[in-house]
Amino acid sequence: MAKGDKINFSTPSGFPEFLPNEKRLELYLLDIIRRVFESYGFTPIETPAVERLEVLQAKGNQGDNIIYGIDPILPPNRQAERDKSGETGSEARALKFDQTVPLAAYIARHLNELTFPFARYQMDVVFRGERAKDGRFRQFRQCDIDVVARRELSLLYDAQMPAIITEIFEAINIGNFLIRINNRKVLTGFFKSVGITEDKIKSCIGIVDNLEKIGENKVKQELEKEEVSGEQTQKIIDFIKIDGSVDEVLTKLKHLTQNLPETEQLSLGISELETVITGVRNLGVSENRFCIDLSIARGLDYYTGTVYETTLLGHEALGSICSGGRYEELVGVFLGEKMPGVGISIGLTRLISRLLKAGILSTLPATPAQVMVVNIQEDLMPTYLKVSQHLRQCGINVITNFDKRPLGKQFQLADKQGIQFCVIIGSEEAATQKSSLKNLKTGEQVEVLLIDLAEELKKRLLHKLQKL
After folding, report:
1. Residue 425: which residues within 8 A CB-CB, separation 6 or more?
2. What ranges in 292-380 are assigned the alpha helix state H?
3. What is the DSSP string of 53-109?
4. Are 47 and 122 in contact (CB under 8 A)?
5. 76 preceded by cis ω (within 30°)?
6. By the 8 A CB rule, do 99 and 75 touch?
7. Which of 113, 170, 203, 457 is the most exposed place for a label (fewest CB within 10 A)?
8. What is the C-alpha separation between 330 and 103, in angstroms, rounded?
9. Is 30 exposed, middle or buried (0-12, 13-18, 19+ CB in 10 A)?
10. CA 173 centroid distance within chain
């Protein structure tokens, strides 16, 4: 770059950057999610942001993910070295586009160090080279949990997922939501029963999964392109539109199997679905939080059993706010053995963006400080520091104003940062071991002994919290 050239320092498209009040909201939500994950015994891990490209493509490039390759940029005097070495084949590297494939590689690398079933959570950043647009990012944080076993994995782990989703979103308090549950075996078995050939089932399931995005007519057109007959198409549409209460849908499915040929896989899927629903109920999840939706398939081919999508009622345009499912072969692809797993994922960056825009969530104050100790006399700074430190030791977050400026300006600074309480200590207060405590929101100002200041602040902060 020539001297004087102007540098474009704007954020690259699709790569988010957070202001303090936005980042604090993300951390607040991460704390809630982490607490729920850990309450079910999930343990944290971290995998590299960069994996070998062949690892990321072990099950093909799933969905519409565009993988970011890593291509080192060397100075001119080392360019020949780069050209000579050329990272190809097993040396080619790329940024991870999700957490599930890297989890499979992680388990393969640490197989003898882990205890199974292995339940882990990750809240890492992932990268996808898709077109950046509203609510879609090229870098975003995913909050994932998965349970992986060797050979067999109880369906009760599948049942736990809706319970975990429910606890998280009720704690975040985002309004009414619905967890839609299905089983890929149900869809696969039904497609077989109406004569869809094995080589077309996956593509047809993918078309059905897009029903909400493209509409019924487009689904019919896409199925026609797959050489599905009009009669078969109508049976498929009628099937995925089966609705009612959970029990009503299960009853309709069981009745349907009595009139269809080749229903072994369909019957197995219905049995698994019923087991999962029973487990969800036994875990105390309210009936209005979940349903059976036969159109849910999840676009990724590695899902083989239970699948989930969560919708925010009244804001369906936001899309799924948490999704996932069961897979049988993903982990085993690295080890050559059966290792079933089940998991869910919350795309937190996208979720926060959408919820803020919809007015469902609000950002937090820019600072975690709850109190400001103002500076009205430089010679009292030792007192300000001692009082501030005492409040911190009592569990209160404090900003000490080191710069002397007019009191009104200090109040404005505190208010701008969302700090409601200011501690004022002048010569007279210091001599009598007192302080003035000002509530910037109400304008109220009271006199408090320094020895009682921490307890008084805790009481007022608790009252503020209870009113939120």
Report:
1. 373, 376, 380, 383, 384, 387, 434, 435, 436, 450
2. 348-357
3. HHHHTTT-S-TT----B------GGGHHHHHHH---GGG-EEE-S-SHHHHHHHHHH
4. yes
5. no
6. no
7. 113
8. 10
9. middle
10. 15
- Which amino acid, one-letter code, is at 78? R
User: Which tokens hold the place of 117?
Assistant: 């079933």
CA distances 240 to 233, 293, 297, 408, Å, are: 11, 7, 10, 64
- Non-local (6+) Cβ contacts of 283 within 8 A are 159, 160, 162, 163
- Whole-angstrom Cα distance, residue 11 to residue 285? 42
Tens digits of pLDDT across the chain (468 residues): 566 688 899 999 999 999 999 999 999 999 999 999 999 999 999 999 999 999 998 866 555 568 998 887 777 777 666 555 555 556 789 999 999 899 999 999 999 999 999 999 999 999 998 777 777 899 999 999 999 999 899 999 999 999 999 999 999 999 999 999 999 999 999 989 888 888 888 888 888 888 777 888 888 888 888 888 888 889 888 888 999 999 999 999 999 888 887 778 999 999 999 999 999 999 999 999 999 999 898 766 778 999 999 999 999 888 899 999 999 888 888 888 889 999 999 999 999 999 999 999 999 999 999 999 999 999 999 999 999 999 999 999 999 999 989 999 999 999 999 999 999 999 999 999 999 999 999 999 999 999 999 999 999 998 765 554
d(CA 13, CA 142): 19
CB distance 232 to 196 below 8 Å: yes
CB 444 within 8 A of CB 422: no
> Which residue type sits at 277?
I
H/E element holding 372?
A: strand 371-373
Which residue in 180, 230, 235, 229 sits closest to 209, CA to CA?
Answer: 180
Enumerate long-range contacts of 273-277, CB under 8 Å, 24 or more apart. 273/181, 273/182, 273/183, 273/186, 273/306, 274/250, 275/155, 275/156, 275/159, 276/155, 276/158, 276/159, 276/181, 276/183, 276/306, 277/159, 277/181, 277/246, 277/250
Find the distance separating the first CA and the last CA of the chain, reported in whole Å: 52
Q: Residue 50 forms beta bridges with which residues?
A: 95
Q: Are 34 and 141 in contact (CB under 8 A)?
A: no
List the beta bridge partners of residue 439: 421
Instruction: Determine the residue type at 434.
Output: K
Collapsing DSSP states into helix, strand and coil, what is residue 350? helix
Q: How far apart are CA 187 and CA 240, in angstroms?
A: 9
Q: Rounded distance, CA 192 to CA 244, Å?
A: 24
Question: Please, are residues 99 and 106 in contact by the beta-carbon 8 Å criterion?
Answer: no
